Amino acid sequence: MDQAGGGEPAYVISAEEILSGIVLVAFTMVVHGMGMILTLYASRSFSDRFEKRRPLLIGLSTLILASWIIILVHCSEVVIWAAFFYFWTGGMPNASTAYYYALLEYTTLGSSLHLPLHWRLLEGLTAIAGVLTFAWSTGVLLTLAQGFQEQQVLALQQRRERHRREPTPSASRRLANDRHPDG
Q1: What's the CA dihedral at 169, 174, 180, 182 to 10 degrees?
Q2: Is the residue at 114 inside a domain?
Q3: Is the model's pTM score more than 0.70?
Q4: DSSP letter at 52?
Q5: Fewest CB within a 10 Å sphere: which of 32, 44, 124, 164?
Q6: What is the pLDDT of residues 49-104, one digit of tens each?
Q7: Angle, helices 15-50/121-165, rounded to nearest 10 degrees
Q8: Can you tell me the distance from the alpha carbon of 109 to that of 151, in angstroms, rounded to the nearest whole number?
């Protein structure tokens, strides 16, 4: 390879690298889509099953459950990238390092590690996949949180309305005395 200015070989993007990146991003999005459907289904099933018991606690538990599922989905997506980095590119010394590297790239933190020069485009594509899936996850979690918040606000409004309609104990006695002056 040609030297680029300061001693590092010149980087040339290959068709294999582009195709691999496109397939990895697409596969990540498919896995994520299925994971988000699972998240919504599991959250709603949990909420429906226990909704009559302590709605505040069940609502918060539903959000926590959704968060756990989303984290597991993201971790499984990182496995896809790590497996590719370890088995296909030959750029990682072991599976653990490949996973750590993929996680840092996927979360856009970056790493001091690098893939072999002819696979460097995947470093950025890993981050792009992470940004896309985190945005999607945020949307799903926001949808669930919005439903929970609306439910809690409605419950508060209903309690206030009942409280306004219920006479106070002294008003109840006066009302009873007005109806039965002998009592």
Answers
A1: 110
A2: yes
A3: yes
A4: T
A5: 164
A6: 887 777 788 889 999 999 999 999 999 999 999 999 999 998 899 999 999 999 99
A7: 20
A8: 36
